[in-house]
Amino acid sequence: MKLGETISKSISLNNLEISVETGKIAKQANTAILRCGDLVILASAVGTTKPKEGLDFFPLLIDYREKYYSSGKIAGGYIKREGRPSDNEIITARTIDRPIRPLFPQGYKNETSVNILLLSNAEEYDADVFALNAASCALAISDIPFKGPVGCVRVGKIDGELILFPTKSQLEVSKLNIVVAGTSKAVTMVESIAYELSEDEMLEAIEFAHENVKKLVALQEELVAVAGKKKFEYTFERNENLYNAISEKYTSELAEALNTALKDERGANVKAVKTKAKEEFASSDLSTEGSFKGDFADGWERLQEKLMRAMILDNKRVDGRATDEIRDILVDVDFLPRTHGSCVFTRGETQSLVTSTLGTVDDGQRVETVTASTVENFMLHYNFPPYCVGEVGAPRGTGRRELGHGNLAKKALIPVMPKLDDFPYTIRIVSEIMESNGSSSMASICGGTMSLMDAGVPISNPVAGIAMGLIKEEDKYTILSDILGDEDHYGDLDFKVAGTQNGITALQMDIKIEGLTFDIMKDALAQAKVGRIHILKEMMKPLSAPRAEIAEDAPRVVKMKINPDKIGKLIGPGGKTIRELQETNKCEISIADDGVITLSAGNQEDIEQSVQAIEDLVCEPVVGKIYQSTVKAIKDFGIFVEFMPKNEGLVHISELPNDMIKDMKIGDSIAVKLNGFDFHGRAKLVHKELLEAAEEEVAVKE
Predict the structure, then answer these.
(1) Cβ atoms of 412 and 505 closer than 8 Å
(2) Fewer Cβ close by (within 10 Å): the C or N end of the chain?
(3) Which of 448, 234, 475, 443 is nearest to 347 (CA)?
């Protein structure tokens, strides 16, 4: 290929021209560039040709970064260089990793990295789905033994119509935001937020998405045909002799150990049998000394997987439940005395302590990224400490997995959250995982719902989440409800569904096999719905609706609107007036350009005083209205009174009864009527007219 030569292929989808190219940029790596309008994404894939010794996992690194120059920006703050990845970048990297990782050969241990850079941003589209296509393309044209390509699309739903690659403005009114990835043969990943859609509507969207995924896979295959490298050969050598020996002697003992209901007991039983087998075969001639550790670990894992899968296909589970049975559920609300809302949600051996905290609008999280500048007034933070699975260790900050699980739980709850205009609070949910044996993210959703209701947040409907699993061998398959950790590990499908009694609010699916049909998906969704409704009923036992009032020590927040022309008057010279209002009434005042004011205070009395003070300050004087005024100054020609806050006027001495002025002092109260304004804008105030009216009224009564 000549210097600077580019090989490019393109396709048109939903009036978007999408192209993938290679050859001009970053030639020492396997690099692909995806273009769509202003959007330009670079993806490079690099891998070693030999496995890394001593690893029991696939060392794949997916790194997604957004550059400030892609949006014509310079980073704010003291440091101008891009730093650690943002939460959005980490979540995007996870989204790319999930459908790509299963498409590497079994047992692949070669170090592999895929770096994706957003070089030019298109403001109207999210870059994540395009980044996944770029990453897949880079791997597909490389010599790395990747069994792709993978395509990815986003689908929305507006007025009953499915929309491919919806814009950000369309997503604001869409009932669905679903990301679907897959190969030409099958769907491999689904991630979505939905506004209580039915199972059939979700399936329809997935099928629609997959038809367009195939087109993006075909586009990448066109580029591979003219620019792809030959894949290097990789063989996964396994010690079949050792595996057969382990299987022959320890199948029955391991099966018995696996058939234990409690996680800790099952783990201890399996470990005891494993230790016995390892000691026996360590001195055998079935494996060399240098490779025995890896050979034995592989053989034992294969046997455990085989037994677990066979048991499930025979409709038996290690904890004795039926395939559609949900573990016992216990819900404790108002668990912590000082939090605004709290709940301990326990399902079997999975437990989450969830709290909800209410704050003012100003407590929202300000998010400054390359592609957006926003304020988040609803947050959900998920924590998974080592002790929740009985491990030794200290928390080391938020990991990628925690961000991903928290993001899914947040998506599930967003559709039922009140609008900020109706409930002007910042809300932070924190899920602390206390125990984990499968489905902790779904426990966070259930606990999050209950803690919100305990805090008095007026959610539209309670939300429950359930994790589903699948074991499939040829044409035989078993769908599992409320899966355990082991069932997730050895299964072919990790399928999480959250929703209300009316429909689905979030769906996440990671598929490890190619033979998953839409009929199986339909069966899984139907079984998940039954489980979800059961969980909702259990959740409602201690608290069936949001509390009528928010917690006593939660801040009180109200909104009011004033004429935008009065904002300056409310603020005052140098902010003097608004500072006095805040200090006097013990409140915080936030003013928007459209005149919407958000008031927050520690109690209801301070809120009411603050509202009254602002109304008094910014309301317009009404001609003909009678005001109870306060004497501010006394002169020979009359008295100056304040009839409204910051509104003063003169009551001429002719308007006062004989000698009345002699007995008056500053601070006295006097009723006045506003008769209008002179050509200088000064108020015309009268008092005698009120006295005459009162005398006439008395005379009439007599």
Answers:
(1) yes
(2) C
(3) 443
SS3 681: coil
Q: CA 519 to CA 500: how far, in whole Å?
A: 23
> What confidence tens digit (pLDDT) does each residue in 32-62 have?
999 999 999 999 999 999 888 878 889 999 9
Q: Which position has the higher pLDDT, 609 or 223?
A: 223
Which residues, in sequence order, are bridge partners of residue 18? 11, 36
Quickly list DSSP for 141-153. Answer: TSSS------EEE
Distance CA 578, CA 668 (A): 26
- Coil, helix or strand for 575? helix
Q: Evaluate the CA torsion angle 222, 226, 229, 235 in order and state its sign.
A: positive
8 A C-beta contact, residue 390 and residue 429: no
Q: Count of residues for the chain?
A: 702
373-410 pLDDT per residue, tens: 889 999 999 999 999 998 998 877 888 999 999 999 99
Extract the runs of DSSP E, i.e. beta strands, from 436-548: 464-473, 476-481, 493-499, 504-511
- What are the C-alpha distances in Å from 171 to residues 36, 151, 176, 195, 498? 19, 21, 8, 12, 20
Q: For residues 129 and 154, is the Cβ–Cβ distance under 8 A? A: yes
Structural domains for the chain: 7-227 (3.30.230.70), 240-313 (1.10.10), 329-539 (3.30.230.70), 556-618 (3.30.1370.10), 626-701 (2.40.50.140)
